[in-house]
Specification:
The chain has helices spanning about 10-15, 25-35, 40-50, 55-60, 75-90, 95-100, 110-115, 120-135, 165-180, 200-205, 235-250, 260-270, 275-285, 290-295, 300-320, 325-330, 335-350, 350-360, and strands at about 10, 70-75, 140-145, 150-155, 190, 210-215, 220-225. It is of the alpha+beta class. This is AraC family transcriptional regulator.
Amino acid sequence: MERDSPCIPLGHIQTYFDLRKSLRLEPEWLLKKSHMTIDEPHEILEVIIGIDQQVFYRNAGIDYSPNEANRFVSTRQVVALVDQAVKALKMPYLGLAMGNLMTISHHGMAGVAAVTQTTLRECLDVISRFCDELFPPLSMAPRIEGDLGIFAIREEISLAPYSHFFFELNMVSFYNIMWHLIDKERHDFRVDFHYPEPAWGNIYRRYFKCPVHFDQPETRIVGPASLAEAELPLANRLMAMSAEKILFENIPTRAMRFLPLRLRRMLLRYYGAFPSLENAASEMGMSGRTLRRKLAEQGTSYQKELDRVRQRLSREYFARGGQSITELSMMLGFTDSSAFAKAFRRWTGLSPSEFMEKGPTAR
């Protein structure tokens, strides 16, 4: 699945750009809530809320009709929408401002399904699953590492040149949700971003009530592992199930029908012991021959997808401070370190040692 694959529900994307349901329409309130600074406050309402939707979507190559169901758009088209909004407002940090405006209610049934889970871990698991289906260019995953709980966000399909917009929007939005769900006395968060601090880096610190770091191994919210089992104040299993059912009845999804994406995410679960093509096919409910044919129809192959996963995992290994090429080679299933080094140079144009020397600039 690439930038031009129509895999993102248009109904979901409209939640980014149609904030009328969750906003009080006074410019003064909007300025205070979003920390926006522009010459004419009413421009915010005109551009984000009152912009002519037909023109807005048409400029991104989307033939838009109000209340249209079963429409999917591509990553490239979504990036074109962001480009219009950022340029119209002359606000490179728009992702931070919009993320801060997004309340739980603004996320609709997805928000209800998430916050009515029993624990924070279950809440984040649900958010991750929704992301897989509703916005596959990003993936989200909670995990525990020792005494730390981590909620990481990664880019699966290039969102350049507005990758930062999507990381900013989601990090602020989910940070705020977690802030309100967890007992204030138990807050001990930090937020990390995998990219260098942008020119507007000081603005990040307006939105997070915790330390903010750049040039980190990954983009993530980090807190105490003990919070994973924290019981949520709105826990209601029946409501959670009902909300998820309503969500997927009203917003069509197709992301996980894209075979390369399904395969890639399955392979990530097998880090250290990748299955053969035949075993992978069996787990996905088909024969090896069928898997090979279906991947070929989508312009890829099992080996290409495996290499894609290996490249991602190797970059993450080095970003987290790993330095043993022999260890990484074995974890990724290579016969020896020289075979891994050859593959790594093919992926990145650098040897593993050169990549480590360059550090964050190589990523």
